[in-house]
């Protein structure tokens, strides 16, 4: 299993890049969001990868963070969602956006991805809603292990490199808030919905702010 590639970006194409690792070129398919976050040709780059194995095909898919890769693995576990559809969903929403949409049951957000119809979007939400809290919590431990730093740029060039989405810090904050609410006794599904809704209002919120906002959202349920 190839879990990560680090080398020099040789070129970018419409849906993939070529990474030169010690003189060997690896074609890595990426979402639009990941492609936009990568530096220009000749720059140092690293991506977490997932290898798709078929009888007549081997394809590598690249991700900025292991959290994003985990969501890819979950998405392709849904019947009817192949790697192409997963890339479209992650490219449209990002890992945090996917987590929020599924947790909140927002099939319309998933349907916004190119090539994803309403029935498939609803199936994604229905099949993954119970797995979302655990995956969101996993994002926190992954972010801590990475130091909350995305993997795509090893030696960033401030001119050539566009600013990547701040996915890892946001994922970590949401995961920490989710863990705190569960420690307070809230059910994982309720806690995840509240954190997702709070993060939807302020995606840059830190853990403490997310916890306060989520508690306010949960308060009416406590009083009911």
TrEMBL record:
Residue ranges of the DNA helicase Holliday junction RuvA type domain?
1-62
Q: Does the keyword Membrane apply?
A: no
What GO biological process, any one, is recorded here?
DNA repair
Q: Where is this region: Domain I?
A: 1-64
Superkingdom assignment: Bacteria
Chain intervals for the UniProt region annotation (Disordered): 154-174
State what protein this is by name.
Holliday junction branch migration complex subunit RuvA
Q: Which organism is it from?
A: Roseicyclus elongatus DSM 19469
Q: Where in the cell is it found?
A: Cytoplasm
Query: Which SUPFAM superfamilies is this protein grouped with?
Result: DNA helicase RuvA subunit, C-terminal domain, Nucleic acid-binding proteins, RuvA domain 2-like
UniProt GO cellular component terms: cytoplasm; Holliday junction helicase complex; Holliday junction resolvase complex
Write out the ranges of the annotated region (Domain III): 171-224
Name the protein family: Belongs to the RuvA family.
Lineage of the source organism? Bacteria, Pseudomonadati, Pseudomonadota, Alphaproteobacteria, Rhodobacterales
Query: Its function?
Result: The RuvA-RuvB-RuvC complex processes Holliday junction (HJ) DNA during genetic recombination and DNA repair, while the RuvA-RuvB complex plays an important role in the rescue of blocked DNA replication forks via replication fork reversal (RFR). RuvA specifically binds to HJ cruciform DNA, conferring on it an open structure. The RuvB hexamer acts as an ATP-dependent pump, pulling dsDNA into and through the RuvAB complex. HJ branch migration allows RuvC to scan DNA until it finds its consensus sequence, where it cleaves and resolves the cruciform DNA.
* Pfam families tied to this protein: HHH_5 (PF14520), RuvA_C (PF07499), RuvA_N (PF01330)
Keywords in alphabetical order, please.
ATP-binding, Cytoplasm, DNA damage, DNA recombination, DNA repair, DNA-binding, Helicase, Hydrolase, Nucleotide-binding
Where does the Holliday junction DNA helicase RuvA C-terminal domain start and stop, copy by copy?
173-219
